[in-house]
Design goal:
The chain is mostly helical. The protein contains 15 helices and no strands. The protein is globular. The protein starts with a helix and ends in a 6-residue tail after the last helix.
Length: 333
């Protein structure tokens, strides 16, 4: 098991290096001078040269890249041009909001999609299967930004039952400890803060999770349909087991591998794909931070954010590979 995971971990090193090179070259190739964007168009040439020397932009590109690799190897992505703080500190202040949003999105998607997919797959061509298929296609084809706008119009504009933006209401949140608003409120027994956090996160999480809900429902249905034709399912029915036990204990448990694959990949996608939803809802996460960094041509912050997302994908895939080996020991070999 350990050897299996070590081999998978070693295989991710070239991926990280290639992505770091691509991101570094692309962000430097983008039009716009960060010194002029941050200092202003009226800045004289001496001040521009001084800023470039301070930020290391006066050196050849390959030297900048190797310095970046050397620092990134120890977790240092440099200093943000815009915020004048270490990139790791800026990311740490915004990443918990994105993680919290992604977790709630995946909870909404899995709680609804897996039961619906199992019921649809166990009753093919029934009204329930048709309803689930329609709902799944709706989720897959629905643009998250359009759904986000519609939710704001309905829930906040027409019904006025949920806040339209932000992460919390001023004066309700307690002392920040972990950066996770809901967790901090529970630790401090601030139940008003817990409710406030849930009302703020519901619409962004729903808008972000609907697409995953549709994908996960379709994958679950297909996996259940495939497992339903296996001999051990026929044997379980022949033994006189109740259909409910056959479906949930024998069919669902053996259809988990493709479902876990989608959950893992979509969790990584939610972390990096929340940019539009965070922008629509003014959610103070790393997605909206990336937009700000791109507009300011903040090279260290953009590179640090992209590498953070890449590392998240790598870790999630390693966890998924480990779960494969736990669920099906044959995969270890």
């Amino acid at each position: 098991m350990a050897s299996y995971l070590v081999h998978r971990l070693i295989g991710t090193i070239p991926v990280l290096l290639l992505i770091s090179l691509l991101v570094f070259l692309l962000i430097h190739a983008a039009p716009g001078d960060p010194t002029l964007l941050l200092l202003g168009e009226e800045t004289n040439a001496a001040e521009v040269a001084q800023a470039k020397a301070r930020w290391g932009l006066d050196q050849p590109l390959y030297i900048q890249y190797f310095k970046f690799l050397k620092s990134a190897a120890v977790g240092d992505f440099g200093k943000s041009f815009k915020y004048s703080e270490p990139v790791t500190r800026v990311i740490q202040s915004r990443l918990p909001a994105t993680i919290e949003l992604a977790i709630f999105s995946i909870i909404i998607a899995t709680v609804l999609a897996i039961p619906l997919g199992v019921w649809a797959g166990s009753r093919p061509n029934s009204w329930l299967d048709n309803l689930g298929t329609t709902f799944g296609l709706f989720g897959i084809s629905m643009p998250s930004f359009w759904l986000a706008i519609m939710l704001i119009l309905l829930m906040a504009g027409v019904l006025n039952i949920l806040p339209s933006s932000g992460r919390s209401t001023y004066g309700i949140a307690g002392l920040e400890q972990s950066g996770f608003y809901i967790l901090d409120s529970i630790i401090q027994q601030n139940w008003k803060g817990v409710w406030d956090a849930l009302t703020h996160i519901f619409m962004p999480a729903l808008a972000l999770g609907v697409n995953m809900l549709g994908i996960l429902m379709r994958v679950t249905r297909s996996a259940v349909l495939e497992v339903m034709n296996e001999e051990y399912v026929t044997t379980a029915r022949a033994k006189g087991l109740r259909e409910k036990n056959v479906i949930w204990r024998h069919v669902t448990s053996n259809a988990l591998i493709p479902v876990i694959t989608v959950v893992g990949l979509e969790l990584g996608t939610l972390l990096s794909g929340s940019i539009i939803v965070e922008t629509v809802f003014a959610w103070p996460g790393s997605g909206s931070l990336l937009i700000t960094a791109l507009n300011a041509r903040d090279y260290p912050l953009v590179t640090g954010l992209v590498m953070t997302y890449t590392a998240a994908f790598v870790v999630i895939n390693l966890v998924i590979d480990g779960l494969y080996a736990v669920i099906d020991p044959r995969i270890r070999y």
